[in-house]
Amino acid sequence: MARIVISENVSVDGVVEVGDGFDRGDWYGRIGATDREAWAKLEYDEALGADALLLGRRTYEWFGARGWPSRSGAWADRLRELPKYVVAGETDLGRWANSTVLTGPVTEAVTALKREVRGEIVVYGSGRLARALLAAELVDELRLVTYPFVVGAGERLFGATDAVRSLGLADTRTVGENLALLTYRPA
């Protein structure tokens, strides 16, 4: 059975997505070259360890709009070869090879996917999907790359919850000079 791993970039105050023109790419642009190199290596290594990607529609389209389906380089090649499962209603899958839309209720579709895939299914971005998976207790690991700034407002990974869910800290690591990777697993 596969393990669901949520991999998120998050501000110190817990924001994963900000509206009004400040998107994920802006996070990367606000850190220094050493941090960018270390972050890119971390992401590439994570992709090497993944057996599949699970994405929400907006994140899938975000990758497509930034040219990832046709980029060159080892990281882009690895993402292109990985099976990609998209939780979406209407999405143009023609952009990125090895992409499949999951149908039906999200929790049922992801539960079935966990039975089919072996190894790690990594969820990049996809805040709404990540929250749904967390609420359904389908997440096996959280990897939070914490960026050294406070955003103040925006979409958070953890919103209102119906119950306290305990997590255990599995690992901490400095990435570059200013980023922190915090890895949690359900307690």
TrEMBL record:
It holds the Pfam family RibD_C. It comes from Actinocatenispora thailandica. One of its GO terms (molecular function) is 5-amino-6-(5-phosphoribosylamino)uracil reductase activity. SUPFAM superfamilies: Dihydrofolate reductase-like (SSF53597). InterPro entries: DHFR-like_dom_sf (IPR024072), RibDG_C (IPR002734), Riboflavin_Biosynth_HTPR (IPR050765). Residues 4-180 form the Bacterial bifunctional deaminase-reductase C-terminal domain. One of its GO terms (biological process) is riboflavin biosynthetic process. Coiled coil: none annotated. This is Pyrimidine reductase.
